[in-house]
C-alpha cells in the first residue's frame, strides 16, 4: 500500500468539485486501501479523495477509538439533516488549525461501498460531523469556509505563519 500526498491550503486543487465514481474495479479497491492507510498514518479520522488530488466522490472515515471500523463512502449523498451541533473541527489539509463549526446533529446518508453496493445509514455526533466535513471536500469546500470572514482570515494567517516557521 502507498501513503498518498495530502494537499494543504492554499492549494487551489482543494477547491475542485469531485465527479461521481463510475468504475468499481480492483484499482478503486487499491486506491481506497491507500486512502485508509494515508488517513491512519496522518493521523486523521476522515479523508476525501479531493485531499489527495483525486477528484472523484470517495471518502474514507474511521471515528472509532481503536481505528478498526473503517467506512468507505462512494458517491455519497446526505438525504436528511436534523438538529444542530457545534463541534471543534480540524483538517489534514489545514494542519494545526481548529475552529468551531455548526453542523447538523443527525444525518441520513446514501452511498455505495468500494464494491458498488448501495448502502444507507443514519449518523449522529462525531460521525455525522465527520461525514459532513468530508462531503464538503467533495464540493471544493474546506471547514474554514464555514467561518466568518474575520475568523477565516485569522486562521489562514496562522496557517501561513506555521508554514513559514516549518520552512526554516
Descriptive notes:
- This protein is 29% helix and 30% strand.
- With 168 residues, the protein is an alpha+beta fold.
- It has one domain (12-167): Alpha-Beta Complex (Peptide Deformylase), CATH 3.90.45.10.
- A 5-stranded antiparallel β-sheet has the order 1-2-3-6-7. Strands 4-5 form a two-stranded antiparallel ribbon.
- A hairpin with a 5-residue loop joins β6 (106-112) and β7.
- The longest helix is centred in the last third of the chain and has 19 residues, at 149-167.
- It is globular, with a radius of gyration of 16 Å.
Query: What is the tally of beta strands?
Result: 7
Mean pLDDT: 96
What is the structural class?
alpha+beta
Helix content: 25-40%
List keywords for this structure.
Peptide Deformylase; 7 strands; globular; two-stranded antiparallel sheet; 29% helix; alpha+beta; 3 helices; 168 residues
How would the blueprint of this fold be written?
Blueprint: H1 26-41, E1 46-48, E2 58-61, E3 71-82, E4 85-91, E5 94-103, E6 106-112, E7 118-124, H2 125-138, H3 149-167
Antiparallel strand pairs: 1-2, 2-3, 3-6, 4-5, 6-7
Question: How would you summarize what this structure contains?
Answer:
The chain has helices spanning 26-41, 125-138, 149-167, and strands spanning 46-48, 58-61, 71-82, 85-91, 94-103, 106-112, 118-124.
